[in-house]
Design a protein that fits this description.
- It is found in: Chromosome, Telomere.
- It comes from Cylindrodendrum hubeiense.
- Keywords: Chromosome, Coiled coil, Telomere.
- The protein is of the alpha+beta class.
- It folds into two domains: about 5-150, OB fold (Dihydrolipoamide Acetyltransferase, E2P) (Beta Barrel); about 150-190.
- It contains five helices and seven strands.
- It has helices spanning about 60-80, 125-145, 155-200, 205-215, 225; strands spanning about 15, 20, 25-35, 40-45, 50-60, 100-110, 115-125.
- The strands form two sheets. It has a five-stranded mixed barrel with strand order 3-4-5-7-6. A two-stranded antiparallel sheet has the order 1-2.
- Strand 3 (about 25-35) and strand 4 form a beta hairpin.
- The radius of gyration is 39 Å and the shape is elongated.
- It starts with 14 loop residues before the first strand and ends with a helix.
- Residues about 1-5 have low confidence and may be disordered.
Length: about 230
C-alpha cells in the first residue's frame, strides 16, 4: 500500500496501526450514555469491539450561546442582502441513548484516555445501513489496514531534502549568532580603549602615597633620624 505524504506531513495527532499512520477514525455502535460537562458533551458508544469508546464534541455554554446569537443577529442586520451568517456548530441534541450512530472524527486524549473528537455523526435508521457499514469496514481492513505501508521514492527524497535544509538552516543560525557575539565583543573592546587613553591608561597610585611609603621603609631618613624616630 502506498500513501501520499501530503496526507500526513503535518505530524500532529497521528497514531499507528502496525506501521500505518492513522489520524481519522470511524465507528458504528449503540449510544449507551450521554454526559455533559462545562462546554463538552460526551457520547459513550459501544461498537461491539469489547470496549466502549467515548466521542466528544464542544458545545457552547449558555452565556457564550447568548453572545453568539446576539452577534449573529447583529451580523445579519449589518449584512442584510449580502452573505448569509455562518452556521452554528452542530451539537447533536437529537441523539439519544439507544440510537445506533455512525461517528467520524480525529483521535484525541482527554483525561488520559483516547477519545474521538467528533467531526460528523449520523443516526442509522435501519439494520441494513448498519450491515452495509460493517461490510465496508471489512473491506477497508483487507484492502488497506492489513497491507504494509511504504513511502514512495519521491517522498523519501523529499524527506531527505527537508532534513538537509533544516540542518543547513540551523548551521547558518549558529554562524549568525557567533558573528553577532564576536561583533559585540569587538565593539566593547573598542569602547574601552579610548576610555583608558583618556585617563592615562591604568590608574597609577598617587605620588603622596608613594612618598609616605618610602619614608616608612627607609626608617625615617633625614630630619626624622635627628629626632630619634
Amino acid at each position: 500500500m502506498t500513501i501520499q505524504i501530503s496526507d500526513w506531513d503535518q505530524g500532529e495527532n497521528f497514531y499507528f496501526y502496525k506501521n500505518l499512520p492513522i489520524k481519522w477514525v470511524r465507528i458504528v455502535g449503540v449510544v449507551v450514555a450521554i454526559d455533559e460537562f462545562a462546554g463538552l458533551r460526551i457520547f459513550t458508544v459501544d461498537d461491539s469491539s469489547g470496549a466502549c469508546i467515548q466521542c466528544s464534541i464542544v458545545i457552547p455554554t449558555p452565556a457564550k450561546e447568548v453572545i453568539a446569537q446576539h452577534q449573529q443577529k447583529e451580523l445579519a442586520q449589518n449584512t442584510a442582502g449580502t452573505t448569509p451568517p455562518p452556521p452554528q456548530p452542530e451539537t447533536y441534541n437529537n441523539i439519544q441513548v439507544g440510537n445506533v450512530v455512525d461517528a467520524k472524527g480525529g483521535i484525541s486524549v482527554l483525561w488520559e484516555e483516547r477519545r474521538i473528537t467528533i467531526e460528523k455523526m449520523l443516526v442509522l435508521r435501519s439494520t441494513a445501513q448498519e450491515v452495509a457499514l460493517w461490510e465496508k469496514r471489512t473491506r477497508f481492513r483487507a484492502e488497506v489496514l492489513d497491507k504494509p505501508w511504504v513511502l514512495q521514492n519521491r517522498d523519501l527524497r523529499k524527506c531527505r531534502q527537508e532534513a538537509e535544509q533544516s540542518e543547513d538552516k540551523a548551521e547558518r543560525k549558529r554562524k549568525r549568532l557567533k558573528a553577532m557575539i564576536e561583533g559585540r565583543a569587538a565593539e566593547q573592546s573598542a569602547t574601552r580603549l579610548p576610555e583608558q587613553a583618556k585617563f592615562g591608561g591604568e590608574a597609577q597610585p598617587s605620588t603622596r602615597s608613594l612618598d609616605l611609603r618610602q619614608i616608612l621603609q627607609q626608617g625615617g631618613a633625614g630630619k626624622y633620624d635627628a629626632l630619634g624616630l
